[in-house]
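Final paragraph of the annual report: two paired records, presented back to back.
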Amino acid sequence: MNTRIAGKKVLTIILAGGKGSRLAPLTDQVAKPAVPFLGTYRLIDFSLSNVVHSGLQDVWIIEQYLPHSLNTHLAGGRPWDLDRTRGGLEVMPPFSGPQDDDGGFAEGNAHALALHTDLIRASGAEVVLVLSADHIYKLDYAPVIEQHLQTGASVTMVTTDIADPSEATRFSNVKTGAQGKVTEFAYKPDEPLGRTVACEVFVYDADLLLSTLCTLEEEGQLGDYGEHLLPRLVERGDAYTYPLEGYWLDVGTLDAYHQAHRDFLDGIGLELDDPNWPFITSSITRPPTRIRPAGTINESFVCGGADISGTVVRSLIGPGAVVEKGAEVRDSIVQAGAVIRAGAQVSRAIVDRDAEVGEKAVVGGQSVNARLCVVGAGAQVEAGATLSPNLQVPPGARLKAGAEAEVAEELGGES
C-alpha cells in the first residue's frame, strides 16, 4: 500500500541517527530518539504518532548511533500499526556498497539522505517528508503536503516562533515575505534573524531533492541540510513556510528536556489523552503505582509500578522507580527503575534509569536557578555523598562520600 496525498506518492523519512551528545549522559547508552519522555513515552513517539494520524504509511527510519536501543522500542512498527506486508515502517541502518566499502556512515543529516538517494528514487516517491525524532509537538502533515503541492514549492519548512530570540541561534532561522515565501535563511547564525525558526519538518519535491543532493555531493557540500541543501533550495526563490500552531519544543539539550517536563506539569504542553490523536508508544505493562502512608505527592507525574514513601514535588517519577521514606524529590526527573533511598535529597536533577541515590545523599541544588545535575544510568551515589549542580555521575559509576572530585564530571556536550 502506497501513501498518496493529493494524488502524489509520499515517502516519510525520520532521521534518527544522531549521537545526541548535548543530551549526554542520557544518550551514552541509548539513542536519542529512544530517550524516555514523561516516563511512559520515547522521544520518537511524537513524530511516529503524528505520521500515522496524518494517514502516512510509508515510513523509513534512518539509524546510525546505538540502533539496537531504538529497534527494541520500535518493535517492527506494531504499536503504530505500521507492520505491513507492503509499505509500513522500514528501518534503514548504516550500510556499505560497491562504492563505499568502508561503510555508509553519515556525516550530517543531508549526507544521511544522500546515502539513500538510489533507494528513494527506486521507491517511486514524488514527495518526501523529512522529520527529526527528538521534538515534542502535534501536527497533521497532510495539510502541509497539500500546501506544498499547491504552491509548487521546492521545499516547505514548518516553522514556529520561539519566545526568546536569543535561543534562535540553536536553530535554522527563517524570514518570510508574501504568502509565506522564504526570503532569508540562516543556519544556527551568530546573530538571530528573529523569532521564527524551522521545526525540523520539511516537505521536498522528490526529484528536486535527489538532483540537489547529487550536485552537493559532487561539490563536497553535504553535511547538515541547514548548511547547503536548504540554502540552495531557498536561492531558487520557491521555498515556502507552514506555520505550526501550538506547542513545540526541541528537547535536544538537558535544560530543554527538563523544561519540557515542567511545561507539561504546568499544563502548557500537549493534550496527551485526545482520543482523536493519541500519542502511541511501545511500553511494558506495569502494576499500579503504590503510595504508602508516609508518601506525599504534589504537582507531579508518577508512572505505573512506582513505589512512593517519601515526598515528591513538581517531578516525574518513572515506571518502577522507588522513593523511600524521608526522601525528597523536587523539580526533578527520576527515570524507570531508579531508587531514591531514605533521607536523600534530590533537587533540580535527572536520575537516569536503574540509578541509585543512597541514604541521606544530596543530589542537586536547592535554588530555583541552580544548574541541573545528572546521575547516569545504573550509577550509584552512595550514602552521604553530595553531587553539586552542573555535575554528573557517569553511567555505571559510583560516587562515594568524600570522593566527589574523583568521580563527578561537568555536564556539557555539543550537538
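The closing record of the year follows.
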Amino acid sequence: MVMGTGAAGLGFTLSGAVSSVFSGTANAGAPKKFKGYGELVADPRGLLDLPRGFRYTVLSRAGVDQLPDNQGPLPGAPDGTYAFAAGFGRSVLVRNHELSGSAVPVPRLPGITYDPAAPGGTTTVTVAGDRLLSTVPSLAGTIRNCAGGNTPWQTWLSCEETEDTPATVPALTKRHGYVFEVDPFGRLRDREAVPLTALGRFAHEAVAVDPRTGVLYLTEDASGPYGLIYRFLPRRPLGGPGSLRAGGKLQALNIPGVPDLSAPSALGTRLKATWVDVPDPDATTVSIRRQFDAGKVTRVPKGEGIFWSDGHAYIVSSYAETSGGAARNHAGQVWKFDPKHSTLTLILIIEPGGRFDGPDNITVSPNGGIVLCEDGDGEQYLVAASEDGTPYPLARNAGSGSEWAGATFSRDGRWLYANIQGDGITVAITGPWWRG
C-alpha cells in the first residue's frame, strides 16, 4: 500500500467505546484506566519488540513453510485476517494474501478458484494458542486480497483491492474488484469461487457487518478521485453462508456540505450521514466513484480498515494530503459510525509530526481495546490507545520497515495474531493484557 507522510500524536475521543481497553477480562471487576504496558524491550532475535512480560511465536513464514499435499510454498503478502473460535482452545484464522502480478500464487485448486490467471486468495490456518496445527488454501484466483471482514454467520469476506479486467491486464480471464465469501467451516460447497457482484466492483479495502440488521459497510482505497464509503442492504439479511449471493442494494455515503472526510479538524465532530444509490454497482463502463456529480457523495482519502464492535463501525482513513487533493493534511483518522442515529463521529486524528502514523487495519479486542496496524513511514508499530487519547506502542517491527496487517484476537482475548506483510510472517502474541 502507498505510504503516508510524517507521524503524529494520537488524539482520541472515544465516548466510552473502549472503556475497558486491555484492562481486564470479562470476569474481572471494574476496569482500571489503561496506561500502556511500558516501553518496548528490544528483541534479541531482532524481529519483534514487545513490552516486558509479553512474548511472541512465529506461526508461519512465506516461502519457507510448505503447504500440504505438495502444493508448494506458503504464499506471501499476508494481510487482512480474522480469528474464528473453533472449540477446545483452538482458533481458525482466515488470512488474505495481497498478491498480484508474478507472485507465488495461492494454489488454484478445484472448488476455490475464480480466475486461474490470478495469484491471490486466502489460506485458512488452524491454531491452538501459538501452536500451528494446519494451513490449507481456501480461496484462489483473485487479486490483491487486502482486507475484508467477518460475518455474523462465521464466514470471512475477502476483498479484492483492484479494478483489473482482461481489457487492462490481458492475461486475466475474468473481471476483478469483487468480494468473495470464504467459509472456514466447510458449509459452502462450490465448483469455483463465487464473486459477490452485488457488493460492487471497485478497489475494495474492508467490510463490516451489523449483526443486528445484516447491513454491510464497505471501504474503498482509491484515488483520482478518492474512494467512497458504501452501505449494502442485502435482500436476505442475516441469511447465513451464501445468502449475500441473493443480491441487494449498494449505496454510497453522502454528508451534505462535506465533500471530503479529511476536512473536519476537531475531535468529536459529528456528521449526519445519508446514503445515495449506486447507479451501476458492477462498474460496467465507469468506476463507481466516478459515477457521481460533485456534491452528491462524500469521499474519503485512503479509506482503509473497518471493524464492527459494540454496535458501531470503526472506519479508518490512513492519511490525507492537500498535495493529493485532500481538504486537509492528516496522518490518520478513525471515525465511529452509529447506525441507529446515522451519524459519523471523528474519534481519532493523527497530526503529522509524532511517533505514529498511517493506521490501516483496525481491530477491537474482546475487552474493548482498539488496536491499529501501522502502514506509514519509518518504524512500523501496532498501536493501542487509552480512552483519553494517549497512544501506546504494543509492538514494533524490529526486523524491517514492512507494514503490520491483519491484527485479530482469539475470542477468549488471550492471543493477538498479526501479520508483517512484506516479510510474509504471521505471529501470535500473548502477555498480561490486564496490566497497565
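Confidence is low (pLDDT under 50) at residues 1-31. This concludes the annual technical report; the extension proposal builds directly on these records.
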